[in-house]
């Protein structure tokens, strides 16, 4: 890929800049499997504190953080409820079933949102020996395939009350929780308060090259350390990567507001109501996603197909305002040229 292309496929495509690389090079390190990497420990303690939780554990990927998080509240032969387009259901390659042996049932909420009546209808913790017992409810904030949707705090609090009333755990896939925090001003600890366990990523909007964390109770994190090692995720002098995460937390959180503004600009260009764009992701309904992706690429803009008729446009650290403006004009033309003509032959 050439640098001339404007890459809006995902916020995972960012490359660490010189200052982040300098922070990585300067990191103090040790063997993290022995618990001796001071930079990893500093990152874990900082992130746990941000969410008001007891502990956190650094993982190579958001998928691994999600598997560790969900398995801390759901066992083999038990189920978690989630939205039908949740990343854990759609895009983790069956990892939760493969590693934990759990099953999932889904509701379909508006743009990936919480549908409490649907959750209440699905919830079945103890229907006897014929049914899988429900143990947890998982939500995604922001919701990726829903279009970067922020889950309203009121909905999360209502879910928390319901979960408490029935003895269920709440997991949050917070890969982009930082975007929700910046878009709404909701303190991260509020998200911690409505959940039992979270997975959060440093490698999406925050621009670190690698790294996620599972955040929860000390007991859950201690157990996750065993499972992380079992899954081949025990890393050694990984403070080099944790340093990138610390740099990202210091420098790349507040600037997410720029990505959100760029996303609204791109939404307008794609004929999507910018009022529906909460954060940095724009989901565009088209008649042929592959054709739109190909035409945009030919015109110098990379976007992703996330369904046969759905294109996703994502803004991030490596897309400037000028590039967003340029991409907006390209996408308007591409969408007009790939729209099927109505009537006539
Ligand atoms: C909402 C969400 N959760 C989890 C993940 C998984 O992260 P990773 O690619 O680091 O495994 C992603 C990846 O894009 C995501 O969008």
Report what the structure shows.
This protein is an alpha/beta fold and 345 residues long. The chain is built from 15 helices and 12 strands. The model has no long low-confidence stretch (mean pLDDT 96). The structure holds pyridoxal-5'-phosphate. The site of pyridoxal-5'-phosphate (PLP) has 13 residues, from α3.
- What number is the mean pLDDT? 96
Contiguous helical run count: 15
**What is the CA-CA span between the terminal residues?**
38 Å
**What ligands can be seen in this structure?**
pyridoxal-5'-phosphate
Helix/strand structural class: alpha/beta
Strand order of the largest sheet: 2-8-7-6-5-3-4
Percent helix among the residues? 40-55%
The shape is globular
Biggest sheet character? 7 strands, mixed
Total beta strand runs:
12
Radius of gyration: 20 Å
Low-pLDDT regions: none
The proportion of residues in beta strands is 15-25%
Write the layout of secondary structure elements.
Elements: E1 6-7, H1 18-25, H2 38-50, E2 55-59, H3 62-71, E3 79-83, H4 87-90, H5 95-100, E4 103-107, H6 116-122, E5 134-140, H7 144-147, H8 153-166, E6 169-174, H9 177-184, H10 188-193, E7 197-201, E8 212-216, H11 218-230, H12 239-251, H13 256-269, E9 281-285, H14 289-298, E10 301-302, E11 304-307, E12 310-314, H15 321-338
Helix pairs in contact: 1-12, 2-12, 13-15, 14-15
The structure holds pyridoxal-5'-phosphate (PLP).
